[in-house]
Design goal:
By secondary structure, the chain is of the alpha/beta class. It folds into two domains: about 250 residues, Type I PLP-dependent aspartate aminotransferase-like (Major domain) (Aspartate Aminotransferase, domain 2), CATH 3.40.640.10; about 120 residues, Aspartate Aminotransferase, domain 1 (Alpha-Beta Complex), CATH 3.90.1150. It has 15 helices and eleven strands. A hairpin with a 7-residue loop joins strand 8 and strand 9. The structure holds pyridoxal-5'-phosphate. The site of pyridoxal-5'-phosphate (PLP) has 12 residues, from helix 6.
């Protein structure tokens, strides 16, 4: 099993690719989710230490029977929960090839061609965003890690260990920013949460007021985080205006574009991102809106040398001896990880294989799905929008006739029950958000398989499940 023959490898791979073809082939007929409990899953896992091995067919059978049915089917066209990409066979094959080569992208000499491919792919992303040629970056595990790396670089510009550093971000900002502040020793309490307007975008007047008050109180403002697609509603903050404020107060401007930034590829959304290319750093996730399987996030720095000052670390076992500048390049100087898998391969294969035009159209079609849902909701008398649509996230609630005169609490409680029942039903999957203190059903279209018809089916599913709830009330 450890060192299979060529024939065995072919036979294993035939079984695996057959599984993939069958699985993706009847995805639509499968539920997105089913109700399950931990005990039922554990019952299927053999807890005994595996002293003797098993053959490959048995391992695959276990995967097919004990893992697949008890997983959420993230590739399903009506998986609208969270910010979940569907993955794509191209990405899965790239992951297989990356693991086969098992390149370790620490420094150039450890993986020359893979490192060059990562640098090229990062440069393509730089161009997509419109950053200047000097900008650079690297792939990391995801948006949280990209935000952490960017804030570590930002802190380099105003180092202070007296607990006075301050970061500014809207109340809608993803929790990974506060988490990064805590991990970097800046402190969660030093992330100042700035109010948002009725479109859930940061209020620049409140941003300026908070910075000014902090300066007067002796704090050291050093960074403002702008959202390019908030996790709750998809709001894109006014990036060009935030750049001006950052310049005025000499702040690092970081953009969290983990969810939304690749929507710059869609013609109808492009204008929202004006100014993004002037950020000091940006986090954006190919494992979200480039549809790739987890894990691949990306951080781009406008001036990578600042990140280098944050991350470079001299140790004898990492010293690079006798190489020219290009060949002495080390990713470990620009991010937190040392050993790094060959994430660039799946990004490169996707961009090269699918092409930007087609990806832009796929993203455009996701935006159209969200807008279609919004227009159906607005035309209905039993649903209402809770936030305007900016990108592909939609927040709404069901208000059937019998609840129309109900209290906000009763409507919230009903929608909460409806969400759980919908998830258990399995035909469509949503998650939730709290907006202005009220409960909202929340969905995010992030799948190239999702059609306008799926959005109609989602509302049908909600009405059907709501009726069954009423019947058992
Ligand atoms: C806006 C935003 N930022 C950061 C993250 C964290 O990304 P990851 O889950 O890849 O760590 C998310 C995840 O949904 C997000 O939506």
């Amino acid at each position: 099993m450890l060192d299979p023959s060529a024939d065995e490898i072919c036979s294993w791979s035939n079984s695996v690719t057959q599984f993939m073809a069958d699985y993706l082939g009847d995805l639509r007929d499968r539920g997105v989710y089913r109700h399950m409990v931990s005990r039922a899953i554990r019952k299927r896992l053999d807890p005994a230490l595996p002293i003797d091995g098993s053959d490959f067919d048995e391992l695959l059978k276990f995967f097919r029977e004990a893992i697949v049915p008890f997983s959420r089917q993230n590739a399903h066209p009506r998986m609208f929960g969270y910010v979940q990409s569907p993955g794509t066979p191209l990405g899965a094959f790239a992951d297989l090839l990356a693991s086969t080569l098992n390149a370790n992208l620490t420094v150039w000499r450890s993986a020359p061609a893979p490192v060059e491919l990562e640098r090229l792919t990062i440069d393509w992303i730089r161009q997509i965003l419109g950053f200047k040629a000097e900008a650079g970056g690297l792939f990391v595990s995801g948006g949280s890690m990209a935000n952490l790396a960017a804030l570590a670089a930002a802190r380099q510009t105003k180092y202070d260990s007296s607990g006075r550093l301050r970061i500014y971000a809207s109340t809608e900002t993803h929790f990974s920013i506060s988490k990064a502040a805590a991990l970097l020793g800046i402190g969660r309490e030093n992330v100042r949460l700035v109010a948002v307007d009725e479109r859930f975008k940061i209020r620049v007047d409140d941003l300026v007021a908070k910075i000014t008050a902090d300066l007067e109180a002796g704090y050291l403002p050093f960074c403002v985080v702008a959202n390019a697609g908030t996790v709750n509603t998809g709001a894109v903050d006014p990036l060009a205006e935030i750049r001006e404020i950052a310049d005025r107060f000499q702040l690092w401007m970081h953009v969290d574009g983990s969810y939304g930034a690749f929507a710059v590829l869609a013609e109808s959304a492009k204008k929202l991102f004006a100014g993004i290319e002037r950020a000091d750093s940006i986090a954006l996730d190919p494992h979200k809106w480039l549809y790739l399987p987890v894990d691949v996030g990306c951080v781009i720095y406008r001036e990578p040398e600042i990140a280098r000052a944050a991350f470079a670390h001299e140790a004898e076992y990492t010293r690079i001896i006798g190489q020219q500048a290009d060949e002495a390049f080390a990713f470990w100087d620009y991010g937190p990880e040392l050993s790094r898998r060959f994430r660039a391969l799946k990004v490169w294969m996707l961009l090269k294989g699918v092409g930007l035009d087609y990806l832009g159209e796929a993203i455009e079609s996701n935006l159209a799905c969200a807008r279609h849902l919004e227009s159906m909701v607005r035309a209905s008398n039993d649903f209402e929008m809770v936030a305007p649509i900016e990108l592909s996230i939609f927040c709404f609630r069901h208000v059937p006739a019998q609840l129309r005169n109900g209290s906000p609490q009763a409507i919230d409680a009903f929608n909460e029950r409806l969400l759980i029942a919908l998830q258990r039903d399995g035909s469509s999957y949503l998650s939730n958000a709290t907006l202005g203190g009220r409960f909202a059903l929340r969905g995010c279209v992030l799948n190239y398989r999702t059609t306008l018809r799926d959005m109609e089916l989602l509302l049908d599913d909600l009405r059907r499940v709501a009726r069954s709830l009423a019947a058992f009330a």
